[in-house]
Fold this sequence. Notes:
This is Phage protein. This protein has four helices and two strands, in the order E-H-H-E-H-H. The radius of gyration is 12 Å and the shape is globular. It has one domain. The longest helix is centred in the middle third of the chain and has 17 residues, at 19-35. Helix 1 (8-15) packs across helix 2 (19-35). By secondary structure, the protein is mainly alpha-helical.
Amino acid sequence: MIKNSLQAKELAVILSVSKSKAGQIIRELNKELEDEGYIAIRGRIPVQLARKKFPYHDLSDERIMEELKKVNEQHL
């Protein structure tokens, strides 16, 4: 399954930042989207935008799914 958007908890794991920092990043990027005339979904950012803004992080579909599996296993 390919994810189209990332939530703060997912972005935090992938970027190795706190959940609050990930939320701040999402708010800033959503503001940029709205300023460009796009509709932004609160609390989420498109994966394509994350790939564009964080070119030095591995945001491949495989890596995203791998990290999310780890997070889900920790919560069980």
